Amino acid sequence: MFTWLADWWDGVELWLAQQPFAIEFALVMVVLLPLCLGLARLIDRVVDRVSARLTGVRDVAEPDPVEPGGTS
């Protein structure tokens, strides 16, 4: 059904595996780091909103973002 996708992915994987380690590492970090950070942020927002709805308290303000290096 998705043989074209599997063939494309195999080609990308083969191309990436043939690169020197430094290029492989840089390419993976350029792609995976933003993807993982975005997915983590999405999961965080979804969990915050679901937990706010499940608590039953409607007047609770959203938490302030924590500043790096700041004191709480």
* Run of helices and strands: HH
Question: What is the rounded Rg?
Answer: 20 Å
Question: How many DSSP E strands?
Answer: 0
Pick out the low-confidence regions.
none
Mean pLDDT: 85
Count of DSSP helices? 2
Structural class, from secondary structure content?
mainly alpha
> N-to-C terminal Cα separation, in Å?
53 Å
> Rough shape?
elongated
Q: Tell me what portion of residues adopts beta-strand conformation.
A: under 5%
User: What about the largest sheet?
Assistant: none
What helical percentage do the residues reach?
55-70%
Describe what you observe in this structure.
The chain has 72 residues and is an all-alpha fold. The protein has a domain at 21-54. It is built from 2 helices and no strands. It has helices at 3-17, 21-55. The longest helix is centred in the middle third of the chain and has 35 residues, at 21-55. It is elongated, with a radius of gyration of 20 Å. The chain starts with a helix and ends in a 17-residue tail after the last helix. The model has no long low-confidence stretch (mean pLDDT 85).
Topology:
Elements: H1 3-17, H2 21-55
Quick recap of the structure?
With 72 residues, the protein is mainly α. 69% of the residues lie in helices and 0% in strands.
Provide the descriptors you would attach to this structure in a database record.
72 residues; 2 helices; mainly alpha; transmembrane helix
